[in-house]
Amino acid sequence: MAPLITDPRHIRHRTFAGLDRLGLGGLPDRFPLAFSPNDRPRLRSRSDIEARAAILNVVQARVFDMPEDMAMRWLLDAHVLDELTPGEWGFIACGRGDRILYADQLESLFALAWILGLAHHLDPTTPCSEDLPDLLPDLRAPESLADWRGRRLPAQRDPGEIAEMLDLYYCLDWMCEQAHQSGMAPPHGLDANLIWHRRWALEWALVFSPTNAPRWDQIQL
Q1: Distance between CA atoms of 181 and 130, rounded to whole angstroms?
Q2: Is the pLDDT of residue 49 over 80?
Q3: How far is Cα of residue 181 from the mean position of the Cα atoms in its chain?
Q4: Staple 109 to which of 2, 56, 207, 212, CB 3.0 to 4.6 Å?
């Protein structure tokens, strides 16, 4: 994992500037930091992030009725079955679970694509790019995980850049939650669901303990 050497207090000052550009200035000082100044967060390995993106790509394909046996065979050949959460097992293998909830994870997948350097932006006011499927393994070919990794993929983003993006989405999520608790719409027309799912991926990508790397379904937002 690549080490992250960044003070979250300095990051928060840059977050203030980013919120101003979005027309969302005036962030309350009481909002907590995304992580403690004493933390030494690290970025998960590229292979782990690629595997998680591949799984979410299959989840999205199942949302659009990719056959169960084809999906499970692809994951078996990719050697990522151990990375599936129990809920993902049920949805991919048996169709159990809320299809809409899994469809919403498209924005988590887009955030992972951004972390991997595949997507060029993670603008919180803009939904994921329509070319996202072209950036990921082509399951119709089918393109294997190894073949996808064999493409000339760009370098993944710097951990410091990811930490700054996490802090931005962390604050935006707090703002959306406070608006919800007050019975108001999200500020500036933000999509609270988009914000939450992208934050999920950013939180997962950064690990705050060398002995504890939470699974995808263990992330606490």
Answers
A1: 32
A2: yes
A3: 24
A4: 56
What are the residue boundaries of the structural domains of the chain, listed by start? 49-209+213-217
Read off the tokens for 125: 């006011």
* Per-residue three-class SS string for the chain: CEECCCCHHHHHHHHHHHHHHCCCCCCCCCCCCCCCCCCCCEECCHHHHHHHHHHHHHHHHHHCCCCHHHHHHHHHHHCCHHHCCHHHHHHHHHCCCCHHHHHCCHHHHHHHHHHCCCCCCCCCCCCCCCCHHHHCCCCCCCCCHHHHHHCCCCCCCCHHHHHHHHHHHHHHHHHHHHHHHCCCCCHHHCCHHHHHHHHHHHHHHEECCCCCCCCHHHCCC
Q: How is residue 80 written in tokens?
A: 């990522």
Write the burial class of residue 54 (CB in 10 Å: 0-12 exposed, 13-18 middle, 19+ buried): buried
d(CA 78, CA 72): 10
pLDDT tens digits for range 74-115: 999 999 999 999 999 999 999 999 999 999 999 999 999 999
Compute CA 151 distance to the chain's CA centroid, rounded to the nearest angstrom.
22
Q: d(Cα 75, Cα 132) in Å, to the nearest integer? A: 19
Query: How big is the chain, counted in residues?
Result: 221
